[in-house]
Design goal:
The complex is a heterodimer of chains A (about 300) and B (about 260). Chain A is built from twelve helices and 14 strands. The longest helix of chain A has 13 residues. The chains are: A alpha/beta (about 300), B alpha/beta (about 260).
Chain lengths: ~300, ~260
Protein backbone atom coordinates (compact mmCIF):
# COMPACT_ATOMS: atom_id res chain seq x y z
CA UNK A 1 0.00 0.00 0.00
CA UNK A 2 1.49 3.27 -1.01
CA UNK A 3 0.11 6.72 -0.41
CA UNK A 4 1.19 9.93 -1.99
CA UNK A 5 1.82 12.74 0.45
CA UNK A 6 -0.75 15.51 0.66
CA UNK A 7 1.62 18.22 -0.40
CA UNK A 8 5.23 18.30 -1.41
CA UNK A 9 6.94 20.95 0.71
CA UNK A 10 10.48 20.31 -0.49
CA UNK A 11 12.56 23.43 -1.04
CA UNK A 12 16.23 24.23 -1.28
CA UNK A 13 17.75 25.65 1.89
CA UNK A 14 18.29 29.02 0.21
CA UNK A 15 14.62 29.17 -0.83
CA UNK A 16 13.37 28.13 2.60
CA UNK A 17 15.38 30.89 4.27
CA UNK A 18 14.47 33.58 1.75
CA UNK A 19 10.74 32.75 1.80
CA UNK A 20 10.12 32.05 5.47
CA UNK A 21 12.77 33.84 7.55
CA UNK A 22 12.69 37.59 6.92
CA UNK A 23 14.65 40.07 9.03
CA UNK A 24 13.19 40.33 12.54
CA UNK A 25 11.98 36.71 12.72
CA UNK A 26 12.13 34.85 16.04
CA UNK A 27 13.88 31.56 15.32
CA UNK A 28 14.31 28.54 17.61
CA UNK A 29 17.14 26.19 16.65
CA UNK A 30 19.61 23.84 18.28
CA UNK A 31 16.75 22.48 20.36
CA UNK A 32 18.17 18.95 20.80
CA UNK A 33 21.06 20.57 22.75
CA UNK A 34 24.49 19.17 21.73
CA UNK A 35 23.44 16.91 18.81
CA UNK A 36 21.39 17.60 15.64
CA UNK A 37 22.15 21.33 15.52
CA UNK A 38 21.14 22.69 12.07
CA UNK A 39 24.42 24.50 11.36
CA UNK A 40 23.62 24.51 7.62
CA UNK A 41 20.57 26.66 8.37
CA UNK A 42 22.54 29.08 10.56
CA UNK A 43 25.13 29.43 7.80
CA UNK A 44 22.46 30.18 5.19
CA UNK A 45 21.05 32.92 7.46
CA UNK A 46 24.55 34.43 7.53
CA UNK A 47 24.98 34.12 3.74
CA UNK A 48 21.65 35.86 3.17
CA UNK A 49 22.66 38.61 5.63
CA UNK A 50 19.62 38.29 7.87
CA UNK A 51 19.36 41.01 10.53
CA UNK A 52 17.53 41.57 13.84
CA UNK A 53 16.78 37.89 14.46
CA UNK A 54 15.51 36.91 17.89
CA UNK A 55 17.19 33.58 18.66
CA UNK A 56 15.61 31.04 20.98
CA UNK A 57 17.28 27.82 22.17
CA UNK A 58 18.66 26.00 25.18
CA UNK A 59 22.42 25.78 24.47
CA UNK A 60 23.17 25.89 20.72
CA UNK A 61 26.86 24.79 20.91
CA UNK A 62 28.51 27.65 18.83
CA UNK A 63 25.64 28.09 16.31
CA UNK A 64 24.36 31.14 18.22
CA UNK A 65 27.92 32.41 18.59
CA UNK A 66 28.34 32.37 14.80
CA UNK A 67 25.04 34.18 14.17
CA UNK A 68 25.83 36.81 16.84
CA UNK A 69 29.34 37.40 15.49
CA UNK A 70 27.99 37.76 11.96
CA UNK A 71 25.65 40.55 13.08
CA UNK A 72 22.40 38.66 12.40
CA UNK A 73 21.02 38.86 15.94
CA UNK A 74 18.99 41.39 17.92
CA UNK A 75 18.22 39.24 20.97
CA UNK A 76 18.91 35.81 22.42
CA UNK A 77 16.63 33.84 24.71
CA UNK A 78 18.80 30.98 25.95
CA UNK A 79 20.12 29.00 28.90
CA UNK A 80 23.74 28.74 27.78
CA UNK A 81 25.85 30.15 24.96
CA UNK A 82 29.32 28.72 24.62
CA UNK A 83 31.46 26.00 23.10
CA UNK A 84 30.66 22.83 25.02
CA UNK A 85 33.96 20.99 24.68
CA UNK A 86 36.25 24.01 24.20
CA UNK A 87 35.16 26.85 26.49
CA UNK A 88 33.66 30.32 26.22
CA UNK A 89 31.98 31.73 23.10
CA UNK A 90 34.22 34.55 21.87
CA UNK A 91 31.75 36.30 19.53
CA UNK A 92 29.02 36.29 22.21
CA UNK A 93 31.55 37.75 24.65
CA UNK A 94 32.54 40.51 22.20
CA UNK A 95 28.89 41.43 21.61
CA UNK A 96 28.06 41.58 25.32
CA UNK A 97 31.30 43.12 26.58
CA UNK A 98 32.13 45.52 23.73
CA UNK A 99 29.08 45.77 21.46
CA UNK A 100 31.01 44.17 18.57
CA UNK A 101 29.58 43.85 15.95
CA UNK A 102 26.49 45.20 17.74
CA UNK A 103 24.79 45.17 21.13
CA UNK A 104 22.34 42.34 21.70
CA UNK A 105 19.68 41.78 24.31
CA UNK A 106 19.85 38.60 26.38
CA UNK A 107 16.96 36.93 28.12
CA UNK A 108 18.51 34.44 30.58
CA UNK A 109 16.84 31.09 31.13
CA UNK A 110 17.79 27.69 32.50
CA UNK A 111 17.33 24.55 30.45
CA UNK A 112 14.25 23.68 32.51
CA UNK A 113 12.58 27.09 32.25
CA UNK A 114 13.15 27.37 28.49
CA UNK A 115 11.66 23.88 28.13
CA UNK A 116 8.70 24.96 30.25
CA UNK A 117 8.24 28.20 28.28
CA UNK A 118 8.16 26.24 25.03
CA UNK A 119 5.88 23.59 26.55
CA UNK A 120 3.46 26.36 27.55
CA UNK A 121 3.62 27.59 23.96
CA UNK A 122 2.98 24.06 22.70
CA UNK A 123 -0.02 23.67 25.00
CA UNK A 124 -1.54 27.03 24.16
CA UNK A 125 -1.20 27.87 27.85
CA UNK A 126 -0.09 31.33 29.05
CA UNK A 127 2.55 30.00 31.46
CA UNK A 128 3.90 26.97 33.34
CA UNK A 129 4.71 27.19 37.07
CA UNK A 130 8.07 25.97 38.36
CA UNK A 131 9.92 25.50 41.64
CA UNK A 132 13.27 25.85 39.91
CA UNK A 133 15.32 29.08 40.12
CA UNK A 134 13.71 30.28 43.37
CA UNK A 135 16.47 32.37 44.94
CA UNK A 136 18.43 32.60 41.69
CA UNK A 137 19.15 35.97 40.05
CA UNK A 138 18.00 34.59 36.68
CA UNK A 139 14.33 35.62 37.19
CA UNK A 140 15.35 39.24 37.86
CA UNK A 141 17.70 39.31 34.87
CA UNK A 142 15.14 37.69 32.59
CA UNK A 143 12.43 40.14 33.55
CA UNK A 144 9.49 38.13 32.16
CA UNK A 145 8.96 35.60 34.97
CA UNK A 146 6.34 36.30 37.63
CA UNK A 147 6.82 35.32 41.28
CA UNK A 148 3.65 33.72 42.63
CA UNK A 149 2.30 31.12 45.04
CA UNK A 150 0.35 27.96 44.42
CA UNK A 151 -3.40 28.54 44.86
CA UNK A 152 -3.58 24.96 46.18
CA UNK A 153 -0.96 24.88 48.92
CA UNK A 154 0.50 28.40 49.09
CA UNK A 155 4.01 27.26 48.12
CA UNK A 156 6.25 29.75 46.27
CA UNK A 157 6.38 29.38 42.48
CA UNK A 158 7.75 31.13 39.45
CA UNK A 159 5.44 31.49 36.47
CA UNK A 160 7.32 31.02 33.21
CA UNK A 161 5.49 32.71 30.32
CA UNK A 162 4.99 30.88 27.04
CA UNK A 163 7.44 31.30 24.18
CA UNK A 164 6.01 30.96 20.66
CA UNK A 165 8.77 31.21 18.03
CA UNK A 166 7.85 32.44 14.55
CA UNK A 167 9.90 29.57 13.16
CA UNK A 168 11.44 26.47 14.73
CA UNK A 169 14.13 24.70 12.74
CA UNK A 170 14.78 21.04 13.43
CA UNK A 171 17.27 18.67 11.87
CA UNK A 172 16.28 15.01 11.64
CA UNK A 173 17.42 11.76 10.07
CA UNK A 174 14.32 11.36 7.95
CA UNK A 175 11.12 13.11 6.92
CA UNK A 176 8.61 12.63 4.14
CA UNK A 177 8.09 15.34 1.53
CA UNK A 178 5.03 16.59 3.42
CA UNK A 179 7.12 17.21 6.57
CA UNK A 180 6.35 14.33 8.91
CA UNK A 181 9.73 14.25 10.65
CA UNK A 182 11.46 11.53 12.66
CA UNK A 183 14.36 12.22 15.02
CA UNK A 184 16.40 9.46 16.63
CA UNK A 185 18.43 10.25 19.69
CA UNK A 186 17.60 12.60 22.56
CA UNK A 187 15.01 15.26 21.72
CA UNK A 188 16.00 17.98 24.20
CA UNK A 189 13.34 20.68 23.80
CA UNK A 190 12.84 20.04 20.06
CA UNK A 191 9.29 18.74 20.24
CA UNK A 192 8.03 21.55 22.47
CA UNK A 193 9.80 24.11 20.28
CA UNK A 194 8.26 22.66 17.12
CA UNK A 195 4.75 22.48 18.54
CA UNK A 196 5.01 25.98 20.06
CA UNK A 197 6.11 27.56 16.79
CA UNK A 198 3.91 29.23 14.23
CA UNK A 199 5.76 27.19 11.59
CA UNK A 200 8.47 24.53 11.40
CA UNK A 201 11.26 24.09 8.87
CA UNK A 202 12.63 20.55 8.71
CA UNK A 203 16.17 19.76 7.54
CA UNK A 204 16.23 16.05 6.71
CA UNK A 205 19.30 13.95 6.10
CA UNK A 206 17.06 11.93 3.84
CA UNK A 207 13.54 12.37 2.44
CA UNK A 208 11.70 9.05 2.71
CA UNK A 209 8.30 7.83 1.59
CA UNK A 210 5.14 8.31 3.63
CA UNK A 211 5.12 4.53 4.17
CA UNK A 212 8.45 4.63 6.01
CA UNK A 213 7.00 7.19 8.45
CA UNK A 214 3.81 5.17 8.91
CA UNK A 215 5.75 2.02 9.71
CA UNK A 216 7.03 3.55 12.97
CA UNK A 217 4.98 6.66 13.85
CA UNK A 218 6.25 6.72 17.46
CA UNK A 219 9.48 8.14 16.10
CA UNK A 220 7.76 11.21 14.63
CA UNK A 221 8.81 14.32 16.52
CA UNK A 222 6.49 16.69 14.65
CA UNK A 223 3.68 15.99 12.20
CA UNK A 224 3.42 17.63 8.78
CA UNK A 225 0.57 19.89 9.87
CA UNK A 226 3.13 22.16 11.60
CA UNK A 227 5.68 22.08 8.79
CA UNK A 228 6.05 24.70 6.03
CA UNK A 229 9.24 23.49 4.37
CA UNK A 230 11.26 20.29 4.03
CA UNK A 231 14.89 20.68 3.02
CA UNK A 232 16.80 17.55 2.08
CA UNK A 233 20.27 18.52 3.27
CA UNK A 234 22.74 15.71 4.03
CA UNK A 235 25.36 16.70 6.60
CA UNK A 236 23.30 19.68 7.78
CA UNK A 237 24.41 19.30 11.38
CA UNK A 238 28.21 19.08 11.04
CA UNK A 239 30.20 19.64 13.28
CA UNK A 240 27.48 18.45 15.70
CA UNK A 241 26.50 14.77 15.43
CA UNK A 242 23.36 13.20 13.99
CA UNK A 243 22.66 9.86 15.64
CA UNK A 244 23.25 6.87 13.40
CA UNK A 245 24.45 9.08 10.50
CA UNK A 246 27.63 10.86 11.58
CA UNK A 247 29.70 11.54 14.68
CA UNK A 248 30.74 14.80 16.34
CA UNK A 249 33.74 16.61 14.85
CA UNK A 250 35.37 17.60 18.16
CA UNK A 251 38.46 19.10 16.53
CA UNK A 252 36.28 21.43 14.42
CA UNK A 253 34.82 22.95 17.60
CA UNK A 254 38.30 23.35 19.07
CA UNK A 255 39.67 24.89 15.85
CA UNK A 256 36.77 27.36 15.84
CA UNK A 257 37.53 28.28 19.45
CA UNK A 258 41.17 29.05 18.64
CA UNK A 259 40.40 30.82 15.34
CA UNK A 260 37.72 33.20 16.65
CA UNK A 261 39.53 34.73 19.64
CA UNK A 262 39.71 38.05 17.78
CA UNK A 263 37.06 39.78 15.67
CA UNK A 264 39.41 39.56 12.68
CA UNK A 265 39.88 35.84 13.28
CA UNK A 266 36.12 35.41 13.48
CA UNK A 267 35.58 37.24 10.18
CA UNK A 268 38.25 35.12 8.50
CA UNK A 269 36.61 31.95 9.83
CA UNK A 270 33.19 33.03 8.50
CA UNK A 271 34.71 33.87 5.13
CA UNK A 272 36.38 30.50 4.95
CA UNK A 273 33.52 28.29 6.12
CA UNK A 274 30.29 30.23 5.47
CA UNK A 275 30.33 33.10 2.98
CA UNK A 276 33.19 31.58 1.00
CA UNK A 277 31.24 28.38 0.26
CA UNK A 278 28.20 28.25 -1.99
CA UNK A 279 26.07 25.81 -0.06
CA UNK A 280 26.25 22.75 2.20
CA UNK A 281 27.44 20.48 -0.56
CA UNK A 282 30.33 22.82 -1.21
CA UNK A 283 31.08 22.92 2.55
CA UNK A 284 31.16 19.11 2.80
CA UNK A 285 33.44 18.96 -0.24
CA UNK A 286 35.76 21.40 1.50
CA UNK A 287 35.81 19.17 4.60
CA UNK A 288 37.06 16.38 2.34
CA UNK A 289 38.18 13.04 3.85
CA UNK A 290 37.48 14.34 7.34
CA UNK A 291 33.75 14.25 6.50
CA UNK A 292 33.94 10.70 5.15
CA UNK A 293 35.58 9.56 8.39
CA UNK A 294 32.75 10.95 10.51
CA UNK A 295 30.02 9.21 8.53
CA UNK A 296 28.41 6.06 9.88
CA UNK A 297 27.16 3.54 7.31
CA UNK A 298 23.33 3.48 7.50
CA UNK A 299 22.31 0.41 9.47
CA UNK A 300 25.69 0.48 11.21
CA UNK A 301 24.13 1.53 14.51
CA UNK A 302 26.15 3.76 16.78
CA UNK B 1 52.75 9.37 42.06
CA UNK B 2 51.98 11.94 39.35
CA UNK B 3 48.29 12.76 39.82
CA UNK B 4 46.72 15.76 38.08
CA UNK B 5 44.28 18.07 39.87
CA UNK B 6 41.65 16.89 37.41
CA UNK B 7 42.22 13.24 38.30
CA UNK B 8 42.10 14.01 42.01
CA UNK B 9 38.83 15.92 41.60
CA UNK B 10 37.28 13.17 39.50
CA UNK B 11 38.14 10.57 42.16
CA UNK B 12 36.71 12.79 44.92
CA UNK B 13 33.56 13.48 42.93
CA UNK B 14 33.02 9.80 42.14
CA UNK B 15 33.09 8.95 45.85
CA UNK B 16 30.16 11.31 46.36
CA UNK B 17 27.93 9.01 44.29
CA UNK B 18 26.34 6.24 46.34
CA UNK B 19 25.35 2.91 44.90
CA UNK B 20 21.84 2.84 43.45
CA UNK B 21 21.47 6.61 43.29
CA UNK B 22 19.92 8.54 40.40
CA UNK B 23 22.51 11.13 39.41
CA UNK B 24 22.28 14.16 37.12
CA UNK B 25 25.60 14.05 35.30
CA UNK B 26 26.97 17.42 34.17
CA UNK B 27 29.47 18.44 31.51
CA UNK B 28 33.24 17.79 31.56
CA UNK B 29 34.79 16.18 34.69
CA UNK B 30 31.47 14.78 35.99
CA UNK B 31 31.20 12.73 32.79
CA UNK B 32 34.27 10.82 34.02
CA UNK B 33 33.27 10.80 37.71
CA UNK B 34 30.09 8.94 36.78
CA UNK B 35 32.09 6.33 34.84
CA UNK B 36 34.52 5.89 37.73
CA UNK B 37 31.73 5.49 40.30
CA UNK B 38 29.93 2.94 38.12
CA UNK B 39 33.10 0.88 37.68
CA UNK B 40 34.04 0.92 41.38
CA UNK B 41 31.69 1.29 44.34
CA UNK B 42 28.40 2.31 42.66
CA UNK B 43 27.63 -0.24 39.93
CA UNK B 44 23.87 0.36 40.30
CA UNK B 45 23.96 4.14 39.96
CA UNK B 46 21.83 5.51 37.12
CA UNK B 47 22.97 8.50 35.06
CA UNK B 48 20.54 11.17 33.86
CA UNK B 49 21.66 13.59 31.14
CA UNK B 50 19.63 16.77 30.72
CA UNK B 51 19.27 16.62 26.96
CA UNK B 52 17.10 13.54 27.48
CA UNK B 53 19.24 10.44 28.09
CA UNK B 54 19.11 7.85 30.88
CA UNK B 55 21.93 5.29 31.14
CA UNK B 56 22.50 2.37 33.50
CA UNK B 57 25.88 1.65 31.90
CA UNK B 58 28.49 4.33 31.28
CA UNK B 59 29.36 5.19 27.71
CA UNK B 60 32.12 2.87 26.49
CA UNK B 61 34.27 5.70 25.15
CA UNK B 62 35.28 9.19 26.21
CA UNK B 63 32.53 11.78 25.87
CA UNK B 64 33.29 15.34 24.77
CA UNK B 65 29.63 16.24 25.24
CA UNK B 66 26.69 14.36 26.70
CA UNK B 67 25.09 14.33 23.24
CA UNK B 68 27.90 12.35 21.59
CA UNK B 69 26.61 9.22 19.79
CA UNK B 70 28.37 6.79 22.20
CA UNK B 71 26.25 8.24 25.03
CA UNK B 72 23.06 7.46 23.11
CA UNK B 73 23.89 3.95 21.89
CA UNK B 74 23.14 1.55 24.73
CA UNK B 75 21.08 4.08 26.70
CA UNK B 76 17.90 2.80 28.36
CA UNK B 77 15.87 5.91 27.49
CA UNK B 78 16.03 8.68 24.91
CA UNK B 79 13.52 11.31 25.86
CA UNK B 80 13.00 15.02 26.28
CA UNK B 81 14.73 17.54 28.53
CA UNK B 82 11.43 18.25 30.24
CA UNK B 83 11.03 14.56 31.20
CA UNK B 84 14.41 14.56 32.95
CA UNK B 85 13.82 17.96 34.55
CA UNK B 86 10.43 16.72 35.72
CA UNK B 87 12.10 13.83 37.54
CA UNK B 88 14.44 16.36 39.12
CA UNK B 89 11.62 18.69 40.23
CA UNK B 90 9.59 15.78 41.63
CA UNK B 91 12.53 14.86 43.87
CA UNK B 92 13.46 11.62 42.10
CA UNK B 93 17.12 12.58 41.68
CA UNK B 94 19.46 12.18 44.64
CA UNK B 95 22.54 13.99 43.40
CA UNK B 96 23.68 16.34 40.68
CA UNK B 97 26.99 17.79 39.54
CA UNK B 98 27.81 21.32 38.47
CA UNK B 99 30.79 23.58 38.03
CA UNK B 100 31.01 27.34 38.03
CA UNK B 101 33.20 30.34 37.38
CA UNK B 102 32.61 31.80 40.85
CA UNK B 103 31.34 30.42 44.14
CA UNK B 104 30.82 32.08 47.53
CA UNK B 105 31.09 30.69 51.05
CA UNK B 106 27.38 29.77 51.00
CA UNK B 107 27.84 27.69 47.85
CA UNK B 108 26.03 30.10 45.52
CA UNK B 109 27.42 29.79 42.00
CA UNK B 110 27.83 32.29 39.20
CA UNK B 111 28.07 31.05 35.63
CA UNK B 112 26.26 34.04 34.07
CA UNK B 113 28.51 37.11 34.08
CA UNK B 114 31.31 38.86 35.95
CA UNK B 115 30.41 42.45 36.80
CA UNK B 116 27.42 43.98 38.53
CA UNK B 117 25.47 45.15 35.46
CA UNK B 118 24.03 42.13 33.68
CA UNK B 119 23.47 44.11 30.47
CA UNK B 120 27.12 45.29 30.37
CA UNK B 121 29.24 42.48 31.82
CA UNK B 122 33.00 42.66 32.38
CA UNK B 123 33.20 39.00 31.40
CA UNK B 124 30.26 37.30 29.73
CA UNK B 125 30.07 33.67 30.87
CA UNK B 126 27.98 30.99 29.10
CA UNK B 127 25.01 30.91 31.51
CA UNK B 128 23.08 28.34 33.52
CA UNK B 129 22.44 25.52 31.11
CA UNK B 130 20.76 23.07 33.44
CA UNK B 131 23.04 24.02 36.34
CA UNK B 132 20.57 26.30 38.11
CA UNK B 133 17.89 23.61 37.87
CA UNK B 134 20.16 20.97 39.37
CA UNK B 135 21.19 23.37 42.15
CA UNK B 136 17.53 24.20 42.84
CA UNK B 137 16.03 20.73 42.73
CA UNK B 138 18.49 17.85 43.35
CA UNK B 139 18.65 16.41 46.85
CA UNK B 140 22.44 16.95 46.94
CA UNK B 141 24.68 19.13 44.84
CA UNK B 142 28.31 18.25 44.11
CA UNK B 143 30.27 21.31 42.99
CA UNK B 144 33.58 21.11 41.09
CA UNK B 145 35.66 24.28 40.59
CA UNK B 146 39.12 25.61 39.81
CA UNK B 147 40.42 27.27 43.00
CA UNK B 148 41.72 30.81 43.08
CA UNK B 149 40.90 34.02 44.90
CA UNK B 150 38.96 35.49 41.98
CA UNK B 151 36.74 32.42 41.83
CA UNK B 152 36.13 31.70 45.53
CA UNK B 153 34.65 35.06 46.54
CA UNK B 154 32.94 36.49 49.61
CA UNK B 155 29.99 37.35 47.35
CA UNK B 156 29.42 36.34 43.74
CA UNK B 157 28.32 39.01 41.25
CA UNK B 158 25.29 37.01 40.14
CA UNK B 159 23.61 33.98 41.69
CA UNK B 160 22.97 31.70 38.74
CA UNK B 161 22.67 28.50 40.77
CA UNK B 162 21.42 28.92 44.31
CA UNK B 163 23.42 27.37 47.12
CA UNK B 164 22.46 28.31 50.67
CA UNK B 165 21.79 31.97 49.80
CA UNK B 166 22.72 33.95 52.90
CA UNK B 167 22.98 30.78 55.02
CA UNK B 168 20.66 29.43 57.70
CA UNK B 169 17.18 28.45 56.46
CA UNK B 170 17.38 30.65 53.33
CA UNK B 171 16.52 27.83 50.91
CA UNK B 172 13.29 27.08 52.75
CA UNK B 173 12.40 30.78 52.96
CA UNK B 174 12.74 31.34 49.20
CA UNK B 175 10.67 28.22 48.53
CA UNK B 176 13.26 25.76 47.24
CA UNK B 177 11.85 22.30 47.91
CA UNK B 178 15.09 20.62 49.05
CA UNK B 179 18.79 20.33 48.38
CA UNK B 180 21.85 22.52 48.46
CA UNK B 181 25.56 21.83 47.99
CA UNK B 182 26.89 18.89 49.98
CA UNK B 183 30.46 19.31 48.85
CA UNK B 184 32.71 21.76 46.99
CA UNK B 185 35.67 20.05 45.35
CA UNK B 186 38.36 22.40 44.06
CA UNK B 187 41.80 22.11 42.53
CA UNK B 188 43.23 22.71 46.05
CA UNK B 189 40.87 21.12 48.57
CA UNK B 190 37.47 19.82 49.63
CA UNK B 191 34.80 21.78 51.52
CA UNK B 192 31.61 20.50 53.14
CA UNK B 193 28.74 22.66 54.31
CA UNK B 194 27.56 23.24 57.90
CA UNK B 195 24.55 25.53 58.50
CA UNK B 196 24.92 26.70 54.92
CA UNK B 197 28.62 27.67 55.19
CA UNK B 198 31.63 26.09 53.54
CA UNK B 199 34.06 24.31 55.89
CA UNK B 200 37.45 23.12 54.61
CA UNK B 201 37.71 19.39 55.41
CA UNK B 202 40.75 18.43 53.35
CA UNK B 203 43.62 19.94 51.42
CA UNK B 204 45.17 18.19 48.44
CA UNK B 205 48.64 16.73 49.14
CA UNK B 206 50.34 19.33 46.95
CA UNK B 207 49.03 22.22 49.07
CA UNK B 208 48.25 23.28 52.67
CA UNK B 209 45.57 25.00 54.75
CA UNK B 210 47.60 28.23 54.64
CA UNK B 211 47.91 28.13 50.88
CA UNK B 212 44.16 27.53 50.55
CA UNK B 213 43.42 30.40 52.95
CA UNK B 214 45.63 32.67 50.83
CA UNK B 215 43.73 31.67 47.69
CA UNK B 216 40.21 31.95 49.06
CA UNK B 217 38.20 35.18 48.97
CA UNK B 218 36.46 34.61 52.30
CA UNK B 219 37.79 33.97 55.79
CA UNK B 220 38.32 30.25 55.85
CA UNK B 221 36.49 28.00 58.31
CA UNK B 222 38.55 24.86 58.85
CA UNK B 223 37.29 21.56 60.24
CA UNK B 224 38.91 20.39 63.50
CA UNK B 225 39.94 17.14 61.84
CA UNK B 226 41.15 18.70 58.57
CA UNK B 227 43.53 16.38 56.76
CA UNK B 228 45.20 15.67 53.44
CA UNK B 229 42.84 14.60 50.66
CA UNK B 230 43.04 10.88 49.97
CA UNK B 231 44.77 10.31 46.64
CA UNK B 232 43.05 8.21 43.99
CA UNK B 233 43.83 4.52 44.34
CA UNK B 234 45.84 2.70 41.70
CA UNK B 235 42.62 1.13 40.46
CA UNK B 236 40.83 4.48 40.29
CA UNK B 237 43.69 6.05 38.36
CA UNK B 238 43.77 3.12 35.96
CA UNK B 239 40.03 3.51 35.23
CA UNK B 240 40.32 7.29 34.78
CA UNK B 241 43.31 6.96 32.44
CA UNK B 242 41.78 4.14 30.42
CA UNK B 243 38.73 6.30 29.86
CA UNK B 244 40.57 9.57 29.15
CA UNK B 245 43.96 8.36 27.89
CA UNK B 246 44.98 11.74 26.42
CA UNK B 247 43.86 13.58 29.56
CA UNK B 248 41.47 15.71 27.48
CA UNK B 249 39.35 16.49 30.55
CA UNK B 250 41.61 15.48 33.43
CA UNK B 251 44.70 17.45 32.39
CA UNK B 252 43.26 20.64 30.99
CA UNK B 253 42.02 22.61 34.00
CA UNK B 254 38.40 23.30 34.77
CA UNK B 255 37.33 26.47 32.94
Amino acid sequence: MSRASNTDKRLSLAEAVSRFVPDGTSVALGCALEPAIPFAFAHELIRQRRRDLDLIGPISDIAFDQLIGAGCVRSVTAAWIGNVSAGLAHAYRRAMEQGIPRRIEVRDHSNFTIAQALLAGALGAPYIPTRSLLGSDIPRANGTFVASTSPFDGSPLLLIPAITPDVTVIAVQQADSDGNAQLLGPWGVSQEAALAAKAVIVLAEEVVSRDVIGADPNRTIVPALKVIAVVEEPGACHPSPLQGRYGRDHEFFHDYHRATRTAEGFDAWITEWVTGVRDRRDYLRKLGPRWQQLRIPVGGGG
Amino acid sequence: MDVSAGELMVAQAAREIRDGERVFVGMRLPLIAFVLAKRTHAPNAVGLFELGIVRDEPSPELLYTMGDPPNVAGAVWCARTIDLMGLLQRGDVEAGFIGGAEVDRHGNLNTTAIGTDRAHPTVQLPGSGGGADIASLAHRLIVIMAHDKRRLRERVDFITSPGYGEGGDWRTRVGLPRGGPSVLITTLGVFRFARGEAVLVSYHPSTSVDEIAANTGWTLTVADDVRATELPSVQELRIIREYDPQGFWTRRGTD
